[in-house]
Amino acid sequence: MSDVMDAAGEQAHEPSAENREQRPGQTPRSRQARSSGRMRGQQWREEFPYHWRGDDLVTRRDTLRFLVAGSGALFIATSALAITGSVRSSVDEHIVPIARVGEIGVNQSHVFTYPDQYAQGIVVNLPGKGLVAYSDVCTHLSCAVLYQADKQRFYCPCHDGVFDAYTGEVLAGPPPRPLPIIELDTAHGVVYAVREVERG
After folding, report:
1. What residue ranges define each of the domains in the chain, with the CATH number in brackets?
2. Burial of 47 (C-beta count, 10 Å sphere; 0-12/13-18/19+)
3. pLDDT tens sequence across 114-126
4. pTM for the whole thing?
5. Which 3 state secondary structure label does DSSP give 44?
């Protein structure tokens, strides 16, 4: 016999093709939902007809051109910044009154704020030369220098840097550059700091 008798004595027929396609626990409604989902997917592809082969439109040559152009733009921007920095004057001009004429005695010093509240300068009335002024920031690690009247020099207590008071040049220690000069001017009995000049 081709049919098999079940426990109740009834014949158990082989599932039809339609039933074989249906998975366990799957209802006809879920098949409809799956079919509807396929239709929506096809509709989306029709509305946005993008083909993966379109990636071939971006060739290696185009990619190379893009990289070269980007590198060129970056190089130009960097060069422009470098040129701007080099062309920019090393002179910082800012006029500030620092003392009255005759107020600073011979071989005496006076610390003043320059060019703003975040920095200072030091002016000294040197024997045989008169008033000279420098930034009091050591060119090593930005400690404040002190004037040593007995040796007529500037001393940095942080790392034993020594500068000549007459020239601002380095005499000893680790400072790599001389002290920046602060140029002075006198008008109506007042001494003014007028500009700071960085030196290499």
Report:
1. 24-85 (no CATH), 91-197 (2.102.10.10)
2. exposed
3. 988 899 999 999 9
4. 0.56
5. helix
